[in-house]
Write a structure and sequence with these properties.
The protein is 50% helix and 11% strand. The protein has 15 helices and 6 strands. The strands form 2 sheets. It has a 4-stranded antiparallel beta sheet, with no helix packed on it. A two-stranded antiparallel sheet has the order 1-2. The longest helix is centred in the middle third of the chain and has 19 residues.
Length: 322
């Protein structure tokens, strides 16, 4: 498949993740389940995340995950508000990419990005950095050359009052329970972000810093975002990937979502059928709303753990339950 402005960021992340981890990781897992949860809006020309499905996808992910972090485990296990406010989710900026790619209007991207960040973390730095990196990628895609000025406008006009009024219902913990002064820390992080955009660097907003350095042609850390920015600066360079066909097909699917070629009714699940996959015996075939038609090809128990290999339409999964 041709690597173009829409498919490149996604393929670059998959490629980097496979290379770094020598296979799937929780980062790719979260990108995939984010894509599976995208549904075109019937009200607006936009694509949104169906959070009913997203929650169910993550509940299922706990059994086949290829890694984890504290923020993700926090929403699956006993919830710790300190983790929600303070920890950084290393899947965050990567899983925002599909949201950016499928939407052509940044006002919809802004809403979906903020809601998705708040799903796993209320960390203020992560919120602001995720939003600004999203704006940066969006500008690259539409070929807007006033990237840094545009990002500055985004952060300058980010009203704390408007932000809390619009998104307070998406916090997992009421912002009034923030361990500190939310208003002061919000404004302080806005200043840190503006400093980075003015090339005044510190120990804050390090991923945004690397992006700004790359945009300015300065030496920066070799990250996947550096490669993404490099592609948009020089698209004629050889940008091939060694990926399974399945991932290129996902890229085409993203393009179809972006261009309104997919009927939302075919993606929506009206009634969920979510049987416990561990209840089935070896050889059993069953239907699951998230996995579709599935078959248990192998089942065994080791050290008190139930392990099953499940063959589905999209591949074979290994599920593990303590």
């Amino acid at each position: 498949m041709e690597i173009d402005r829409i498919t490149f960021p996604l393929m670059a992340i998959f490629n980097e993740d496979f290379k770094k981890n020598k296979g799937l990781s929780h980062i790719t897992d979260l990108i995939l389940l984010t894509i599976k949860s995208l549904v075109p809006s019937e009200e607006y020309v936009s694509v949104e995340i169906d959070y009913t499905r997203y929650k169910e996808e993550i509940n299922l992910w706990r059994y086949y995950r290829h890694g984890e972090n504290s923020s993700l485990l926090n929403i699956l296990e006993k919830f710790d508000s300190n983790i929600y406010w303070k920890d950084m989710d290393d899947t965050l900026y990567y899983r925002l990419i599909p949201i950016i790619l499928v939407n052509k209007d940044f006002k919809f991207i802004r809403d979906e990005v903020i809601k998705n960040i708040l799903f796993t973390t209320g960390n203020i730095e992560a919120l602001i950095e995720g939003l600004l990196i999203s704006k940066l990628i969006y500008y690259l895609i539409i070929n807007n050359r006033d990237i840094i000025d545009g990002i500055k406008e985004e952060i300058i006009h980010l009203s704390q009052v408007d932000f809390l009024e619009k998104y307070k219902m998406f916090f997992r913990v009421p912002y009034e329970e923030y361990p500190g002064n939310f208003s002061v820390d919000f404004e302080r992080n806005k200043v840190y972000a503006i400093n980075v955009l003015n090339t005044v660097f510190s120990n804050k907003f390090k991923i945004l810093e690397n992006c700004i350095k790359t945009l300015n042609g300065k030496e920066s850390k070799d990250t996947v975002f550096k490669r993404i920015i490099g592609f948009f600066k020089n698209p004629s360079k050889d940008h091939s990937f060694q990926l399974d066909r399945y991932y290129f097909q996902l890229g085409q699917y993203i393009c179809n979502l972006r261009n309104g070629r997919i009927d939302p009714h075919k993606l929506k699940i009206e009634k969920y059928h979510l049987p416990d996959v561990f209840e089935f015996k070896e050889g059993d075939v069953f239907y699951h709303s998230l996995l579709n038609k599935s078959q248990v090809v192998k089942r065994h128990e080791i050290d008190g753990k139930v392990i099953i290999q499940l063959k589905t339409k999209s591949g074979t999964y290994k599920f593990i339950k303590d």
